[in-house]
Amino acid sequence: MKKGMVLYLFLALVMAAAAMAALGGGDVQFRVTGAGSVMFRHDSHVSSHGLACKACHYHLYTTVAGHSKMTMKDMEQGRSCGACHNGVQAFDVRANCNRCHIK
Q1: Which of 5, 32, 46, 95 has its CA 20 to 30 A from that of 13?
Q2: Dihedrals phi, psi of 76, to nearest 5 degrees
Q3: In angstroms, rounded to a whole number, what is the distance separating the alpha carbons of residues 103 and 101?
Q4: Of 4, 26, 7, residue with least CA distance to 15
């Protein structure tokens, strides 16, 4: 009986992890004073562009709780979003304000 329950719980955890991975982590909103909020959509990065979670986590980003504030200057120097949004891998953060900041 215990072996069956352990197997059932293990399979439930594996299926839950697969479902979470398929969802791509959901949307994360960053409130930015004076420039309009930024909505980061995991789905567009994970599904549409085929990025694996490890492409950003935990190299560029940690968790919402462990997140540190970044400035546009930081991003222009290749940190945070600017690591990919540099005009080579993806659109440049410098001249595309409206693509991220929502008023």
Answers
A1: 46
A2: -65, -20
A3: 6
A4: 7
* Residue range 36-87, pLDDT digits in tens: 999 999 888 888 888 888 888 877 776 666 677 888 999 999 999 999 999 9
Kind and range of the H or E element at 39?
strand 37-41
Q: What pLDDT is stored for residue 96 in this prediction?
A: 92
Residues sharing a CB contact under 8 Å with residue 40, sequence separation 6 or more, in sequence order: 27, 28, 29, 30
* 58-84 b/e (C-beta count within 10 Å ≥ 16 → b): eeebeeeeeeeeeebeebeeeebbbbb
User: 42 near 24, Cβ under 8 Å?
Assistant: yes
Residues 12 and 6: beta-carbon distance below 8 Å:
no
The pLDDT of residue 9 is 65
Q: Is 93 exposed, middle or buried (0-12, 13-18, 19+ CB in 10 A)?
A: buried
